[in-house]
Recover the amino acids of this structure.
C-alpha cells in the first residue's frame, strides 16, 4: 500500500457537509414541529379500512400453470398471509402455496395457490379461511376458560 500523500486534500468533516433536508432547523431556523400538518401524516385508519372502490380479495387465474390462482388481499399483511399459507399447506390437495408482500409500505399481499385439480384454488382458500376462523374461535374459548379458572384460583388463594 502506497504511503498517503500529505498534500492530498483531507476529507471534509461530516458537519461541514450540506444538509439534504431543506426544512432542517439548521437551514431554516424558523421551522418548528408545529409546521407539520395533518396532510403530512397518513391517516392510520386508511391502513385497514377499504375504500369504496376496493375489494378485500381479488382473484386472478394464473394461465401458465394448471389449477393455479393468485389472490391479492388488500389492507392485510404478513400475519394473515402466513396463517393462510400454513393452513393451505396442511391440505392434501394443495401442491403449492406461498405469499409475497410486493412492497412493505403498502398493506397488501399476494397469495399463490396451486391445487391437484380435485378442488379449485378458490375452494381451497375459502376452506382454509373457514378452518382458521374455527381454530381461532377455539383458541379464544379455551384461553378465556383458562383465564377465568386462573382468576378463580387466585381469588381463593388470596381469601385463605
Amino acid at each position: 500500500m502506497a504511503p498517503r500523500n500529505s498534500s492530498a486534500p483531507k476529507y471534509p468533516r461530516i458537519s461541514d457537509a450540506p444538509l439534504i433536508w431543506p426544512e432542517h432547523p439548521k437551514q431554516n431556523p424558523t421551522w418548528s414541529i408545529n409546521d407539520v400538518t395533518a396532510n403530512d401524516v397518513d391517516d392510520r385508519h386508511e391502513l385497514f379500512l377499504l375504500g369504496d372502490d376496493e375489494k378485500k380479495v381479488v382473484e386472478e387465474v394464473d394461465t401458465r400453470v394448471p389449477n393455479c390462482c393468485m389472490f391479492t388481499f388488500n389492507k392485510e399483511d404478513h400475519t394473515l398471509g402466513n396463517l393462510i399459507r400454513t393452513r393451505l399447506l396442511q391440505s392434501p390437495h394443495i401442491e403449492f402455496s406461498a405469499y409475497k408482500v410486493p412492497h412493505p409500505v403498502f398493506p397488501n399481499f399476494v397469495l399463490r395457490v396451486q391445487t391437484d385439480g380435485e378442488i379449485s384454488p378458490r375452494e381451497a382458500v375459502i376452506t382454509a379461511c373457514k378452518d382458521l376462523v374455527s381454530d381461532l374461535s377455539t383458541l379464544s374459548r379455551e384461553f378465556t376458560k383458562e383465564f377465568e379458572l386462573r382468576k378463580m384460583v387466585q381469588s381463593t388463594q388470596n381469601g385463605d
Summary: The first strand starts at residue 57 and ends at 61. Helices lie at 78-89, 121-159. Residues 25 and 31 are 6 Å apart (CA to CA). The two ends are 80 Å apart (CA to CA).
